[in-house]
Amino acid sequence: MGQIYLDYASTTPTDSRVVEAMLPYFGDIFGNPASIHAFGQEALAAVEGARAGIASVLGADPAEIVFTSGGTESDNFALKGVAYANRARGNHIVTTAIEHHAVLETCRVLECEGFAVTYLPVDREGMVDPAAVAAAITDRTVLVSVMHANNEIGTIQPIAEIGRIARQREVLFHTDAVQTFGHLPFTVGELGCDLLSVSAHKLYGPKGVGLLYIRKGTRICPQMNGGEQEKGRRSSTLNVPGIVGFGKAAELAAAELGAEAARLTALRDRLIGGLFARLAGVRLNGHPTRRLPNNVNLSVEGVDGEGMVLSLDMLGIAAATGSACSSSSVEPSHVLAAIGLGQDPPQGSLRLSLGRQTTEADIDAVLETLPEVVGRLRALAPRYGGEEAC
Ligand SMILES: *Cc1c(COP(=O)(O)O)cnc(C)c1O
Q1: Which class is domain 4-10+257-384?
Q2: Is the CB of 71 under 6 A from ligand 1?
Q3: 179 Cβ closer than 6 Å to some ligand 1 atom
Q4: Which tens digit of pLDDT belongs to each residue from 115-151?
Q5: In which residue ranges of the chain is CATH 3.40.640.10 found?
Q6: What is the pLDDT of residue 84?
Q7: Catalytic: 325?
């Protein structure tokens, strides 16, 4: 059996058409886009072409796009930038317990600096209640940040509704759309957000490049200070090959998204249905229907997540787990804890995320392999009569 990659939520392979588009910018077209000579101007034209293309997919004005080094920087920029710029107005941020670490750890830092953060809970299926967002906003609130879709359990949030609430209360609204841009159809207007984070390597673009959409007129403090690139909002010489690749990836994703989302949804549901038919003691984490087309997240009783991932890896299947296994305890991730998964009963989580290269044969191989792997691990697990598995 060949290698089967089912960890697209973690990163995607760079599409060969993207690599092709990037290559000239490592060679002849190496100029600095800030230079006024021909070398610089050619690079600048490529950057602005990518910016215009991505902006059109997002339904934004090109001037509202700031290129960054990826999703983590964009999240840091949005939260710190808005918090610092609006200090005179207030010191309160509303977010959720299931955000990516790039948002949560930034919030922790802001708390150390005197900001107050409300971490809203989610329900069993990972949904944020818009009414809870409304109730959490005070006259000191400067920002609401709720992710578009969760990277672990795939739940898609009611972003447009939350956006309307934030707008009505005159509070800025940021959404981390790293898992959805290029995968789900939306515009920033439909979502009603003022700020939105994207990362190229989650949509078959290169690693180390992303963007922050900043709606015109939004008060934000730059977090990278220097040569005043990106109209002073983000200094540092532009990553020209990366941005060109990002532009190509966005163009391809926009063209192929409709058919690809339908194909992946069918494969996802074949995998979920097949596993439930073959395996007892499993539960689907996340929302049954409001979930990413490519996300399957399972809790499996009597096994630990790392055991499953390592066993599958030995059989050529790359997956991920949302639990950290430390000597004798299996702690669920912050996302799994937020949807109410604890250590009792002992259960491991497994995330299988599908993508462009995933075929029906891959899904069938997992349906054959995973029940065997789980059976073998359960035979070793304490509750199932075996040794400590972790
Ligand atoms: C991957 C990811 C990030 C981080 O993006 P990087 O480009 O890897 O820094 C942020 N948020 C979400 C939801 C992600 O899935």
Answers
A1: alpha beta
A2: yes
A3: yes
A4: 999 999 999 999 999 999 999 999 999 999 999 999 9
A5: 16-252
A6: 98
A7: yes
CB–CB of 95/107 below 8 Å?
A: yes
* Angle 177-124-279 from CA coordinates, rounded to 5°: 100
Q: Note the pLDDT of residue 382.
A: 66
The CATH class given to the 16-252 domain equals: alpha beta
In the set 107, 193, 325, 390, the catalytic residue is 325
Contact 210 CB / ligand 1 (< 6 Å): yes
Residue pLDDT, tens place only, 180-215: 999 999 999 999 999 999 999 999 999 999 999 999
Res. 111: pLDDT tops 80: yes
Start-end ranges of CATH 3.90.1150.10 in the chain? Answer: 4-10+257-384
Q: Which of 151, 213, 158 is nearest to 191 (CA)?
A: 158
Say what the pTM is: 0.96
Return the residue whose CA atom lies nearest to atom 3 of ligand 1. Answer: 71
Cα separation, 58 vs 211, in Å, equals 11
Q: Which residues contact 310 (CB under 8 A, 6 or more apart)?
A: none
Q: Is the CB of 100 under 6 A from ligand 1?
A: yes
Q: Which of 266, 226, 278, 209 is nearest to 65 (CA)?
A: 209
Distance in Å from the first CA to the final CA of the chain: 27
In this prediction, residue 327 carries a pLDDT of 46
